[in-house]
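Explain my protein.
***
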Amino acid sequence: MAFYSSFATVLVLLAITAPVALLFGFAGATAARSRFLPLSLLGKGYTAIVRGVPDIVFFMFFVIALDQAFEYLRHKAKCPDWSEPIRQGNDFVVCAQAKLPLSTSPQWVHETYGFSLAVLTFAIVFGAFAANVLFGAMKAVPRAQLETAEAYGMSHRQTFWRILVPQMWVYALPGLSNLWMILIKATPLLFLLGVEDIVYWARELGATKSPKFSDYPHGNWHAYYFFGLLVFYLMLTSVSERVFKRITVRLSHGQATAAGEAQRKAAQ
C-alpha cells in the first residue's frame, strides 16, 4: 500500500511544485525587467546562478543548508543563552527546542517537513528556468502594442497587467511545457532527498531480500517494478502533451502568432 500511495506523493509534488515554481518564475522575470537596477540585478542574478549550478548540487546540499538555516533562526530566537558554538567541526548543533521538527513530533510531521523542503527546493530550481522562459516571452510581445496602450493613457502597471501579461503566455507555453516534462522526469530525485517515493519503493520491494519485504521472499523483481514506473511516466507525459496542445490552441485564438494565423486560415 505504501508503494501505491507513493504514486500519489509524486502527483502531489507536481501539483504543488508547478504553480509555486511558476510564481517564483514570474517574480524573477518581473524583477529582471524592472527599471529599478538593484531589483533587476536580483532577478537576473537568481536566474543565472540557479540555472548555472547543476541540479544535483541543489538537491544534495541546498536542502541541508535550508534546513540548517531554519534551525539557526529558531535557535537564536528560542535559546538566546546558549553558550556553545553551533558549528562543531562537521556537526551542526542547536538546542532541542530549535530542532525541526521536534524529536517528540509524530512521524507524519517529520515526513511532511521533509516533503515541504523538497517542494521548496524543486520550486526554487525550476522557478529559475521558468523565469528565463517568461522573461523571453515578455520580450516577445510586440513593443508596438505596449506603446499603443501607453498612447491611450494606460499607466505602466495597467499596460503590464492588461496587455503584456495576457499575451506573453502564448509565447511562454512551449518553453513551460518542456519545463513541465523535465519536472516530471526530475521527480525521482525525491529519492535522494529522503522522501519515500515510487523509486524508493520500487527498489525496496523489488529486491530479493529487504527489511521492507522480508516476510515474503522472492526473486529479483526490480525489472517488473521499474517497468511499471516506465509505464506510469509515459502515461503521465502523454496526458500532459494532450493538455498542453489544447491550452496552446485556446491561447492562440486571435493572437498574431503562427498558431493564431493557422486558426484564421482554417476558419476561412
Notes: The beta strands are 87-88, 91-92. The two ends are 55 Å apart (CA to CA). Residues 2-195 form a domain with the MetI-like fold fold (CATH 1.10.3720.10).
